[in-house]
Design brief:
- By secondary structure, the chain is an alpha+beta fold.
- The chain has a single domain, classed as Aminopeptidase (3-Layer(aba) Sandwich).
- 35% of the residues lie in helices and 27% in strands.
- The chain contains 6 helices and 7 strands.
- Strands 1-2-3-4 form a 4-stranded antiparallel sheet, sandwiched between helices. A 3-stranded antiparallel sheet has the order 5-7-6.
- Strand 2 and strand 3 form a beta hairpin.
- The longest helix is centred in the first third of the chain and has 15 residues.
- The chain starts with a strand and ends in a 5-residue tail after the last strand.
- The structure holds coenzyme A.
- The site of coenzyme A has 21 residues, from helix 1, strand 4, helix 5, strand 5 and helix 6.
Length: 158
């Protein structure tokens, strides 16, 4: 597996990964509620993903195995993780851990001292196990019961 910057050519496949990850893996969050799913998925279009790949002040990363994209990660510089979605077929094989580590490296390279994100219920345990702490009151997003504001201090390079 390699992790690299996404290009607009990745948009269709990366978008499909984002949508499958939300629909199939985040059931604890959306509970198959059509309204929540429709709000969550509304901006996950190939056109938007292509634009995110070219956006100033942000990084869109893909984890790639062979010809297949297995996960998509997003960072708004310097240190806000906006996307971290693994394909259902690639779950629990270390892909998100590797992608998260690269997002953190990118954040550090952009001068961030810490990284912030809003975790799903689905991924909350994953982030806790990777050094993130809750930093605010959980609040619903897209109509979900709880999203968790989390943060992690980055180790300073010596
Ligand atoms: C939870 C999730 C993020 C983990 O990604 P992954 O690529 O499958 O994870 P990895 O293989 O890198 O690491 C496995 C970790 O998942 C977590 N995990 C294991 N089983 C789990 C389960 N049944 N449910 C939730 N998390 C689990 C553990 O923290 C595990 O870490 P450990 O090996 O140190 O115990 C992913 O499976 C997922 O469901 N993503 C859905 C999209 C999402 O919610 N993204 C976050 C947006 S903020």
């Amino acid at each position: 597996m390699i992790i690299r910057d996404a290009t607009p050519d990745d948009a269709a496949q990366a978008c499909a990964v984002l949508r499958a990850s939300i629909i199939d893996l985040c059931v604890a969050d959306h509970r198959n509620d059509p309204g929540i799913l429709s709000r969550w998925l509304a901006n996950k279009t190939p056109e938007n993903v292509a634009a995110w790949a070219c956006a100033e002040g942000a990084s869109l990363l893909v984890a790639v195995e062979g010809d297949a994209i297995s996960a998509v990660g997003g960072l708004t510089h310097p240190g806000e993780i906006t996307l971290n979605y693994v394909s259902p077929q690639a779950r629990f094989r270390g892909v998100s851990s590797a992608l998260l580590a690269e997002l953190e490296r990118r954040a550090a390279a952009h001068g961030a001292c810490d990284v912030a994100l809003l975790s799903t219920e689905t991924a909350h345990r994953f982030y806790l196990a990777r050094g993130y702490v809750d930093v605010g009151v959980p609040a619903g997003k897209f109509g979900t019961a709880a999203s968790y504001p989390m943060s992690k201090a980055l180790a300073l390079a010596s």
